[in-house]
Amino acid sequence: MNRILQLLLLTLFFFSCTSHKTEVSSPDKNIRLAFNIDNEGFMSYNIKVNDSIFIDDSQLGFEAKDGLNLSNSFEIIKTEFSSKDETWNQIWGENKTIRNHYNEMAIHLANIDSTYLVIRFRLFNDGLGFRYEYRIKDTDKIILTDELTTFNIKENGVSWSIPASFETYELLYRTLPLNEVEDANTPFTFKTTRLQDYKTTSLSVNESISSESVSESESVSIYASIHEAALTDFPEMTLRLHQSKDERLKAKGKSRQFKVQLAPYPDGKTKAIFEKDNFISPWRTIQISDKAVGLINSNLILNLNEPCVLEGDLSWIRPMKYVGVWWGMHLGVESWVMGDRHGATTENAKRYIDFAADNNIDAVLFEGWNEGWDSWGGRQNFDFTKAYADFDIDEIMRYAKEKDIEVIGHHETGGNIINYENQLEEAYRWTKEKGINCVKTGYAGGLPDRHNHHGQHNVRHYRKVVETAARHHITLDVHEPIKPTGIRRTYPNMMTREGARGMEWNAWSEGNPPEHHVMLPFTRLLAGPMDYTPGTFDILFDNTRNSPLRKKWNSNDKGNSRVNTTLAKQLANWVILYSPLQMASDMIEHYEGHPAFQFFRDFNPDCDWSEALQGEPGEYVAIVRRAGEDFFLGAATNGSAREIEIPLTFLEKGKSYEATIYSDGDDAHWETNPTSYKIEKKTVSSHDTLFIKMAAGGGCAVVF
């Protein structure tokens, strides 16, 4: 078909089709999204919350190489509306049963450059998601160079985020005004506040005078978090303030418009490559709530992922508690490399297996078990099927089976993805053959060919690993990961990830500050479970450099390393920092005979229901989870002491419960007396209120 005829047919097609409606609302009508096209065919959207603009007009579209037009000259062909209200069950998760209730608007568009596009908007009561579904005629390759999506936040406010990086998520969180954020990774959490006028009626001093209407105002806050869902074949997105420095100065810091930035290929320009004529983007998501804890209680990210694709008996996927040969290496008292300090030896492995069997713990992790650690610091070359000579894997697996303890394998790649993929199939076949059903992976180090950690190349690699593991019925715990985006719904063997500053930072740096642990539930954990590895009991007493109490843990200690919490907060973090694979991270000699370790013995990570009860980002949080008939409550605060009241209405009505309460001692303080704690028992019911007093940097853990 020649070009003139093609243009004529497209023109006739556009004039024969009309758009009936370009707005859609959430089921409860509180959130409304409008889609717009201007005279030149550029696309935009805006969002209202409670009838007030929340996201002002914001751009949509992409840019690509070879003259492909993915951003303008569009016309609407048709608009389709649909709704869904269903419940679905997952085999593990914060909540086993999830409601999926949304209204959808699918805008079908085309332009004169033979680009066909569906923009699909889904609005839930707890937020929304939208994605792009492109098809380009007469092309067999699409190379994306930019995404034009913006989020133009109407009101100023406060935000909580880490800086944008395509290499790491292990950065400290910042609390900044929205208009002072240059860039950020997602989840990007923020709160906006505006004044809302309303009418009240008041009497004058002389009550015989009729009342009159008086206009007053109140502040209305909205909590929100921008992220993405179903990241499967795409680079990750970060956010950058969408203004030049000159424009920002002109606007006097008032801009709050953020543009998507995609992790690039090594050339710095190419963002994504598709060897076909179509692609579907991940969902761009905004969780919305009038309370900070509403973000934690949202299931939006999971609902925007595809249902589970694994078939048959999935009993091989199960939550577990574990200990491991790990913390000692970070402290420097053990090593990954075979030698005098080697941690993963047959003798040490059996000691950890015995401890797990005696303490109601499901599994043991062994890092440093395999050959290749000697190459660390160069181009790491690990062998994933060959154990060190002092780690008799067959004897260890026999012993673990005898004790009914699972072994968690470890695949550290050192970033050498080529080496890992060359061994991938055989490594997982061999691992399963040995009786290992769970593997922790790691990607510490630079990637080959100058690829960054979060680009499309690595996203595809992680997908390949989770699919390979699934074929062999192996579950995964991924460190140095791509951030979670809900893939665990589709592949529930993808159980947990790191993806933030975890416990190990306390061993060889200034450590994670007290506010870090009450920031994570409102930021990183909105994306999905985190293997933070809580539970260190050996807390350094005093971090004052010249104090007589000061001691260096190990050779890695720079002189200021310590765990910046109280002991009670370490217990609470097992509940607060959700992971279906939950670790007691300390060396086991620090747990033996310790009364507070009873909490972990009783704890069950296979929860059926969860709810965040109270909290504010970076300040405090209280979360309860139910597993079977038992409830577990975790509460924690930042560097300030705090008292909170928790109504126990979540307990089953008509039942009495024995509450075992692990709390800070009266003289506890994260800096000066972190190990002071007390244990109390009370009989309670759903009619009672629990009064919790937390020390600075402290917390409280309760078993009902």
Structural commentary:
- There is one protein chain.
- By secondary structure, the chain is of the alpha+beta class.
- Among the domains are: 3-144, Beta-galactosidase, Chain A, domain 5 (Distorted Sandwich), CATH 2.70.98; 316-499, TIM Barrel (Alpha-Beta Barrel), CATH 3.20.20.70; 505-527 and 536-571 and 607-704, TIM Barrel, CATH 3.20.20.
- 16% of the residues lie in helices and 35% in strands.
- It has 13 helices and 36 strands.
- Strands 6, 7, 8, 9, 12, 13, 15, 16, 20 and 21 form a 10-stranded antiparallel β-sheet that branches.
- Helix 6 packs parallel to helix 7 (393-402) and helix 8 (417-433) packs parallel to helix 9 (456-471).
- The relative contact order is 0.09.
- The model is unreliable at 1-20, 199-215 and 541-551 (pLDDT under 50).
Question: Could you give a short description of this structure?
Answer:
Among the domains are: 142 residues, Beta-galactosidase, Chain A, domain 5 (Distorted Sandwich), CATH 2.70.98.10; 184 residues, Aldolase class I (TIM Barrel), CATH 3.20.20; 157 residues, Alpha-Beta Barrel (TIM Barrel), CATH 3.20.20.
Core attributes:
704 residues; alpha+beta; Beta-galactosidase, Chain A, domain 5; TIM Barrel; ten-stranded antiparallel β-sheet; eight-stranded antiparallel β-sheet; 13 helices; 16% helix
Give a topology summary.
Blueprint: H1 3-16, E1 23-25, E2 31-37, E3 43-49, E4 52-59, E5 62-64, E6 74-89, E7 97-111, E8 115-124, E9 127-136, E10 142-147, E11 150-153, E12 157-161, E13 174-177, E14 183-184, E15 188-202, E16 212-229, E17 237-241, H2 245-251, E18 257-262, E19 272-274, E20 278-280, E21 283-289, H3 292-296, H4 300-303, E22 320-325, H5 327-331, H6 346-358, E23 363-366, H7 393-402, E24 406-412, H8 417-433, E25 438-442, H9 456-471, E26 475-478, H10 487-490, E27 494-497, H11 505-508, H12 567-576, E28 581-583, H13 598-602, E29 609-616, E30 620-627, E31 630-637, E32 642-647, E33 657-664, E34 677-684, E35 689-694, E36 699-703
Parallel strand pairs: 22-23, 22-28, 23-24, 24-25, 25-26, 26-27
Antiparallel strand pairs: 1-2, 2-3, 3-4, 4-11, 5-10, 6-7, 7-8, 8-9, 9-20, 9-21, 10-19, 11-18, 12-13, 12-15, 14-17, 15-16, 16-21, 17-18, 29-30, 30-31, 31-36, 32-35, 33-34, 33-36
Helix pairs in contact: 6-7, 8-9
